[in-house]
Amino acid sequence: MRQLVVKVTAGSDDPERCAQGFTVAATAVASGAQVSLWLTGEAAWFALPGRAAEFTLAHAAELSDLLQSVLISGTVTLCSQCAQRREIAPSDVIDGIRVAGAASFVEEILAPGAQALVY
């Protein structure tokens, strides 16, 4: 199975780049790829309940719908350092989102056949 690791570093501070990352991840899930979506930097806030629903960008799919599709068929990870910097505890995040660090990210992107994209 094809594996795609998508790292989203932007949030509401750069809405187009943020939406692009979520859209690519959800589209890859829909096409049958094994997808791992990483929420880092300002995208870390979208690991919290309700935050993705607050995001708006004209002519873009709802971020909460994109996130939900990846949660159902892929994996979503919140960067542990990004979470700590924002005082987000593992118990604060949406059910199904894991918290992990750089070692897990490197393991995923170095897996045979994996491709990584950063937004």
Side by side, the strands of the main sheet go: 4-3-2-1-5
Number of helices: 5
Structural class: alpha/beta
Using only C-alpha atoms, the radius of gyration works out to 13 Å
Main sheet makeup = 5 strands, parallel
Summed over residues and divided by their number, the pLDDT gives a mean of 97
Query: What is the number of domains?
Result: 1
Spans of at least 5 consecutive residues with low confidence = none
Shape call: globular
CATH class: Alpha Beta
Give the tags.
Hypothetical Protein Ychn, Chain: A, 119 residues, globular, 5-stranded parallel sheet, alpha/beta, 38% helix, 5 strands, 22% strand, single chain
Description:
38% of the residues lie in helices and 22% in strands. It has a five-stranded parallel beta sheet. It has one domain (3-118): DsrEFH-like (Hypothetical Protein Ychn, Chain: A). It is globular. Helix 1 (15-30) runs parallel beside helix 3 (63-73). The two termini are 23 Å apart. It contains five helices and five strands, in the order βαβααβαβαβ. It has 119 residues and is of the alpha/beta class. Strand 3, helix 4 (80-85) and strand 4 (97-100) form a beta-alpha-beta unit. The model has no long low-confidence stretch (mean pLDDT 97). InterPro entries: DsrEFH-like, Sulphur_relay_DsrE/F-like.
